[in-house]
TrEMBL record:
Pfam families: Annexin (PF00191)
Family recorded in the similarity comment: Belongs to the annexin family.
UniProt keyword Disulfide bond present: no
InterPro entries per UniProt: Annexin, Annexin_repeat, Annexin_sf
Annotated GO MF terms: calcium ion binding; calcium-dependent phospholipid binding; phosphatidylserine binding
Protein name, entry field: Annexin 9
The keyword Isomerase is assigned to this record: no
The organism's place on the tree of life at top rank: Eukaryota
Native species: Hexamita inflata
The entry's keywords: Annexin, Repeat
GO cellular component terms listed in the entry, alphabetical order: cytoplasm; plasma membrane
Gene3D superfamilies xrefs: Annexin
């Protein structure tokens, strides 16, 4: 799998953590809570630092930051800011468990939560999952998925080692052959996406376009449908540029009949620190203007906080 930038942060600065905890306390004092101030504090730290700030807050004031945020805030603003100060990988593990809990698995959400994982993400989420539920995450996913094309991709992605095929021209030819004729050989697509390195994959995509006069993304959209199209397209985008995959999920969260708040909150929590501002704005351009999309889809303090976390305020 591909590692997005900044996936493994350094050690937090104790002085900054204490200052942030004090600022959070001040933002929740008195008659009203300053949601924008809390959002700006969250935006100023990476995920490891935010979790440390929550611990420091507890030590300094004898109160749980999560509990205080829950008491002071409501609705999606509360859910957004509360999850921002939780351990990211614990929150990710809980979402995955919720996705697979009960009578039926939410297959679309499972695709969104897994095919956006780097190798480091999967390692960390798996550890949290085992601790929380006494289950192996990979084995649980395998038990909840059928033999569909997208399920093969998810399993291959989580077990991929990027040590397979190494010749970009060969990969391009394999993919073309797999998509030719009456049926698609999805196993070849799984092999290319899960076992070629991101560098080789991107070179193969360029070769494919030069050799066959069309993009691989066009071929994926033609050859796959439904959840499989969603899965292979998300995986393709992640390998090309993780910001494109993040943009895909942001678009999914805000287009259609209503906002998918769970997805929007998850993507913001997991990726806003890596792809903030102009970087995510540029990647989102294929769908339109991200800042405008946020303003159209959500309102009020929720809108303000989301814009701050993505670097637009």
């Amino acid at each position: 799998m591909f590692r997005h930038p900044g996936a493994i942060p350094g050690q937090p600065d104790p002085n900054r953590m204490q200052s942030a905890a004090q600022q959070l306390y001040e933002a929740m004092r008195g008659a009203g809570t300053d949601e924008k101030a809390i959002g700006r504090i969250a935006a100023g730290f990476n995920f490891m630092e935010r979790a440390t700030v929550a611990q420091v807050f507890q030590q300094m004031y004898g109160k749980s930051l999560e509990g205080e945020l829950k008491r002071e805030l409501t609705g999606n603003v509360e859910r957004m800011l509360r999850i921002m100060f939780q351990d990211k990988y614990t929150a990710w593990a809980k979402l995955l468990n919720k996705t697979m809990k009960g009578a039926g698995t939410d297959e679309k959400r499972l695709i969104q939560l897994t095919l956006i994982m780097s190798d480091y993400d999967f390692q960390q989420v798996s550890q949290r999952y085992q601790a929380l539920y006494q289950k192996d995450l990979y084995a649980h996913i395998c038990s909840e998925t059928a033999r569909s094309d997208w399920a093969k991709l998810v399993k291959g992605w989580l077990r991929g080692n990027n040590t397979g095929v190494a010749d970009p021209n060969q990969v391009a030819q394999m993919l073309h052959t797999a998509a030719s004729g009456s049926g698609t050989d999805e196993d070849v697509f799984v092999e290319a996406m899960c076992n070629a390195s991101p560098e080789i994959y991107r070179q193969a995509v360029a070769c494919y376009c030069n050799m066959y006069g069309k993009t691989l993304e066009q071929t994926i959209k033609k050859e796959f449908a439904g959840k499989s199209e969603d899965a292979f397209l998300l995986c393709h985008q992640y390998l090309m540029n993780p910001a494109l995959a993040v943009s895909n999920l942001l678009h999914e969260s805000m287009h259609g009949g209503g906002t998918d708040d769970q997805l929007l909150i998850f993507v913001t929590m997991a990726f806003s620190e890596f792809f903030r501002g102009q970087l995510i704005r540029d990647a989102y351009q294929v769908y339109g203007d991200l800042q405008r999309a946020i303003k159209i889809d959500i309102t009020g303090k929720y809108e303000d906080v989301v814009l701050i976390l993505w670097g637009f305020k």
